[in-house]
Every structure is written in structure tokens, then in C-alpha cells.
Amino acid sequence: MVDQESYNADYFETGVQSGKSGYQDYRWMPERTIKFAHKVARELSLRDGDKILDYGCAKGFMVKAFRILDIKAYGCDISKYALSKADAEVAPYCKLITNGEIPFVENFRTIISKDVFEHLDELTLEKVLRECGRVSQKLFAIIPLGDGKRFVIPSYELDVTHNLRKSREWWENKFEENGWTVSRFSHLLPGMKDNWAKYPKGNGFFFLERKD
Predict the structure, then answer these.
(1) Cα dist from 133 to 59, 90, 121, whole Å
(2) Within the chain, how many helices (H) and strands (E) appear?
(3) Spatial CB neighbours of 63, under 8 Å, sequence gap ≥ 6
């Protein structure tokens, strides 16, 4: 199981100094976050009023960005600390994950999960994928890739909570085994993680559809 207590103030605010993560003073950066949300919305053909879920929303910055773009975004996370720091206007839409269960019963047009699944162990991942299938027919997952032992991008090793350093093929098999079909895949998407473009196979963008 994932240790919820690991995602505390040290992780988000002084991660570089504490050696826990690559985060330092994790804060709202509107230009970057809204631009990223806009790129995601275009890739997923989202429209005004669409209901989506950010799985692993942390402080709710992506939820805030999507709502600025008139998309009805919700979020969930395992970090009590991060959720306690969510801005007042988005806090009501962000909920705590307990026992790996998504704290919503709504049907979402899609779930977005950026840099989250690599933190999980295999059993938790399988439960999360089944939970995602319970509330949505589509899932967009952005995941750092590795060879089983190391990430392609060395900086991802700085986060001590990273667990799954797996290949594209491993992830695709895991998705298929847990009720999802990969409809599209890319290592690079313009406007998303451009700072890692020098590692052309360092990230995976998985567009998934639930098997019915």
C-alpha cells in the first residue's frame, strides 16, 4: 500500500532539500498550469461543461485551471496535507482517497492522471485501475517510463516515493489486464513535458478506453 504520510509538507515544499522529491515550494503557477490544462483539453476534445476527474490532484491546481477553462473538474488525492492547501474556490471539488477508493460516484467523461501511477505498487495500481473503470469510460495517464530498474529520465529518481520504473509494454499489458484498451499512445506531445523532450522515450502518454 502507498504510505499517505509520505506526501507531507517536506515532500511538497522542501522536497529537494529533504531528499524526498523534486518539488520545491509547490505552488500555483497560472501561466504554466492553465496552458497545460488547455493542451490536455484539446488532446481529449473536451468541451465547456464536461465533467472530468484529476486523479492525484495534490493541491488542486489542475482542477483550478480546468475550471477557469469552463470544464467541470474534480480531484482526489491521498495527501491530507496537499488537499488542506487547496484554494478555497476548488477545495469543495477535491476529496481524499482512502483505501484506494475514488471518493466519487459520478460518471466522468474522462479521468486524467499525471505522474501518479508510478508511485503505486502493483496491487494498488490494479485496484486503482478498476476504480477508474467504475466512474469513467476513458482515462488519460501520463507516466514516466523505465526499464524495470531505472527511469529513462534520471531526475525521476530524485523522488523517493517512485516505485514502478516500467516500460511502455509493461504498462500497456497492465492496462489490458485490468479492463482498459490503449486507443492511442505517444512518447511526446507538444506542450506537455516539453522540458524532458531531450529524452524522447522518457515519458508515456496513454489514451485509454474502458472495455465494456
Answers:
(1) 24, 24, 18
(2) 7, 7
(3) 54, 57, 73, 74, 75, 86, 90, 93, 94
Q: How many residues does the chain have?
A: 212
C-alpha cell at 87: 484554494
- Domains detected in the chain: 28-210 (3.40.50.150)
Low-confidence residues of the chain: pLDDT under 70? 1-3
* 3-state SS track over 9-44: HHHHHEHHHHCCCCCECCCCCHHHHHHHHHHHHHHC
Check residue 17 and give its pLDDT: 87
- The DSSP output letter for 136 is B
C-beta atoms surrounding 38 within 10 Å: 17
- Report the half-sphere exposure of 142 (CA within 13 A, side-chain side): 15
Can you say whether the dihedral through the CA atoms of 106, 56, 179, 103 is positive or negative?
A: negative
Q: Find where cell 522515450 sits.
A: 201
Distance CA 110, CA 55 (A): 10
Res 2: pLDDT = 61
> Distance between CA 185 and CA 208 in Å, rounded?
9
The DSSP output letter for 178 is T
List Cβ neighbours of 95 (8 Å cut-off, separation of 6 or more).
74, 75, 76, 83, 103, 104
Q: For the whole model, what pTM was predicted?
A: 0.94
Strand order in the sheet with 203-210: 94-96, 72-77, 51-55, 110-114, 138-144, 203-210, 180-186
How far apart CA 181 and CA 177 sit, in angstroms, is 9
